[in-house]
């Protein structure tokens, strides 16, 4: 091989090495998409999350066996507990009142409880909506009102036949995480529930009330060193994004999930 051939070979090698380095660098710098696990997905919940970040990957955990769902949550950056059937009253010491419940789903209870346990252990951000709010309270040692019309009668209607047009006002508790997120004292929300938090978990505080003093939202009493956790009884996914108790909550959830993801990525590279 003469000098000219050696130079050509060297230039080709340098070019290939530079190309490989560039491709590898681009691959390493490519952002990993954020993943949010949803206990049971519907288009409304998906839209609500996507408006906060259109690049988020949503994982419908309800479609998986419970052990597989917990494993899938390992790959997620946040957990959204959605609305649905009544929580089985035996979970909070009221099994004798089961007949006063409506539709129940034991598998859903077991799934949600397993997901909550995993998310809390990982210090993963959690948002609970309606049933999700209730089962968070139950998991942490609280109890529920079995039926609001019978057990907490008031002029405020919390459940309507026409659930798309069922609204009432909620008052946000000052100096709570929810008040800092929403920057509001009160707002009108979309509602649809016949159960609610009755006995609050000793680990939680109330961040919102309805006008009849029914508990409408929960969060940690002492959040330091724990998962970001907010539960709301209303349905932000059915509300206008401009409502401070809807869009801003989704935005904060995504922000917390990104922080969680960043911390996890740093830990895995150590």
Describe this structure in words.
- The structure is a single chain.
- The chain has 270 residues and is of the alpha/beta class.
- The chain has one domain: Class I glutamine amidotransferase (GATase) domain (Rossmann fold, 3-Layer(aba) Sandwich).
- The protein has helices at 3-29, 43-52, 66-73, 106-122, 131-139, 148-151, 177-182, 247-268, and strands at residues 35-38, 57-60, 78-81, 126-129, 143-145, 167-172, 186-190, 196-199, 204-210, 215-220, 229-232.
- It has a nine-stranded mixed β-sheet with strand order 2-1-3-4-11-10-9-6-7. It has a two-stranded antiparallel sheet with strand order 5-8.
- The longest helix has 27 residues, at 3-29.
- Mean pLDDT is 90; it is low at 11-29.
**CATH fold-level label:** Rossmann fold
Identify the strand order in the major beta sheet.
2-1-3-4-11-10-9-6-7
Number of helical elements? 8
User: In the CATH hierarchy, what is the superfamily?
Assistant: Class I glutamine amidotransferase (GATase) domain
Low-pLDDT runs: 11-29
Helix/strand-derived category reads alpha/beta
């Amino acid at each position: 091989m003469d000098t000219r051939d050696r130079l050509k070979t060297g230039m080709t090698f340098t070019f290939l090495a530079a190309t490989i380095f560039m491709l590898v660098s681009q691959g390493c710098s490519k952002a990993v998409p954020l993943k949010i696990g949803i206990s049971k997905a519907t288009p409304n919940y998906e839209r609500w999350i996507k408006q906060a970040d259109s690049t988020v990957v949503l994982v419908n955990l309800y479609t998986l066996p419970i052990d597989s769902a917990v494993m899938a949550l390992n790959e997620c950056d946040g957990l959204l507990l959605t609305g649905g059937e009544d929580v089985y009253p035996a979970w909070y010491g009221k099994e004798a009142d089961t007949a006063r419940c409506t539709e129940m789903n034991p598998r859903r209870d077991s799934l949600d409880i397993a997901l909550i346990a995993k998310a809390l252990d990982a210090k993963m951000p959690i948002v609970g909506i309606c049933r999700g709010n209730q089962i968070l309270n139950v998991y942490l040692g609280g109890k529920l009102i079995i039926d609001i019309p019978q057990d907490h009668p008031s002029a405020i209607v919390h459940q309507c036949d026409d659930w798309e047009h069922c609204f009432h006002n909620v008052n946000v508790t000052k100096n709570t995480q929810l008040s800092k997120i929403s920057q509001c004292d009160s707002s009108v929300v979309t509602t649809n529930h016949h159960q609610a938090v009755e006995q609050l978990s000793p680990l939680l505080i109330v961040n919102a009330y309805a006008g009849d003093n029914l508990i409408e939202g929960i969060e940690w009493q002492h959040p330091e060193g724990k998962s970001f956790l907010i539960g709301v009884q209303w349905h932000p996914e059915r509300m206008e994004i401009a409502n401070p108790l809807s869009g801003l909550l989704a935005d904060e959830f995504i922000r917390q999930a990104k922080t969680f993801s960043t911390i996890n990525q740093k830990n895995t590279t150590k």
